[in-house]
Design goal:
The protein is an alpha/beta fold. It contains 18 helices and eight strands. The strands form two sheets. Strands 2-1-3-4 form a four-stranded parallel sheet, sandwiched between helices. Strand 1, helix 3 and strand 2 form a beta-alpha-beta unit.
Length: 440
Amino acid sequence: MRCAAPRFSTTNIFLSLELERVKGVNTQKEFVDFTKEMKKDHVILVPDIFPVHMSLLTEVLRMYGYQVEVLHYTGQKVLDEGLRHIHNDMCYPAICSCGQLLYALTSGDYDPHKVALMHFQTGGGCRASNYIKLLKKALVDMGLGYVPVISLSFGGMEKYSGFKITPLLLYKGCISLVYGDMLMQLKNQVRPYEVHHGQTQQLVETWTERLVSHFKRNRGLTGRSITKNLKAMAADFHAIEKTSEKKIKVGIVGEIYVKYAPFGNNDLEEFLFSQGCEYMVPGVLGFVYYCASGKLIDWELYGGSRFWKYLGVFMERILNGLQNKLRSVLSAYDEFITPASFPHVKALAETVISKGVKMGEGWLLPAEMCELIENGYQNIVCAQPFGCLPNHIVGKGVIRNIKNRYPNANIAPIDYDAGATKVNQENRIKLMLAVARESL
């Protein structure tokens, strides 16, 4: 079978090198740095990836003097912008998220001379490692090469004189994710059963505003205040009047962008809600734990410097401590499902796949499927974007192993693509739900 993408990429590399050798043409573009001066008057634009978490995460960045705005552009016009300026053979999350950033510059809502673009950069074999370079190239092609592009990477893949991720900033960012995970867990478990429509979403917005207000005053970031806020959240959602109706429980897993971003998954959560389902999405902090534990796993499998071992152990301990606060609060209520501990999730992964698999979502994705099934969400939508080879391997490729372990699992892999129709995706989900209703 021919593999067009690697052939295309390799050909381009050799053509570029030959052009430099024969004609002396420099095919490497010079890109602008994000300087300390820009920090004062530049707005940093970020794509909307985690609907519940982004307001809290960006407020942490504002605490350190960065002017951050989350973009909410959607629709075909955004996809067209991504397809036009990002290679059309690139993965679907790149088309969506980079399309949001590039559309913002052409929308007239921002002065291109006073903005910078920010995107997550994961590292490793995921195509997300290339997003920053693709954005820079697209900006040059659009005549906007003066716009800085910032990598939000914990591996230090890019260096900037005016932007730095410090250990304290990283820790506060993780705290914001704990709050976001708590709100998301409570919202997903309460909203399908609320008697008064819209009450749950209103409470999510109220708590988001309250936490942002706390962050502005550097509050809500200590161990005692975190526990206090989490307990107050759970009590508020517990107080919402709910029905006792029995509903189909559906878990959502997949590549990190299409799993969380409504623009990437065509409002999957809203569709499941309209079908009378209770849906559950694993927390974002789990992905951070997965990334942090990768250093420790590498040391266990391949050896090397003990620094990475101790760093991995330290990070796991911090993240376990934060998650345990959330788990302790939720476990006090019989009506709420308590997520499994991170060590247990990692142990579940080893029952179906090697923990050495860490490209893309790696061992985390099948582990989350196992966790969801054990928590009663045996109907699972596995969101798979076009061009994400790791996700297809650890998602669709592991389904048989999971069904061998959990015979009642009802898993539907759903493909997301710029050319895919929402109707086809929803019809496949409806087939899964039809099977689920038979065993309800």
